[in-house]
Amino acid sequence: MKLRYTETALAEIDKIITSIEKDNVTAAAHVSAAIQAAMRRLSEFPLLAIETDVPGVRVLPVLPYRYVIFYNTCDDAIVVRNVRHTSRLRRFGAVAPDRHLESL
């Protein structure tokens, strides 16, 4: 299934990789590869992850790292909504993606 990304998700991925690159280019490459591998799994198995408390939105961990991908499926694509570090979820008490994202 085709992957689409919200602008928010693309910005979050860029921020994650850029932030890690400042300290360790190799680590950034590993995290980037893990995110890409998770995205490939999603394209093959769209219902792979568990649902969140937001109807239709699923969350997939990016192993072995502490990042998660929030996404939903539509007729012809998987829409990646957010990519977050799990510490951000606890700090803000958020276990769901941004609810205010633009409709796709």
From TrEMBL:
Cited Pfam families: ParE_toxin
InterPro entries xrefs: RelE/ParE_toxin (IPR007712), RelE/ParE_toxin_dom_sf (IPR035093), TA_system_RelE-like_toxin (IPR051803)
Cross-referenced Gene3D superfamilies: RelE-like
Record carries keyword ATP-binding: no
Keywords, alphabetical: Toxin-antitoxin system
Superkingdom field: Bacteria
Entry's family note: Belongs to the RelE toxin family.
Matches recorded under NCBIfam families: RelE_StbE
Name listed for the protein in its UniProt record: Plasmid stabilization protein
Organism of provenance: Rhodoplanes elegans
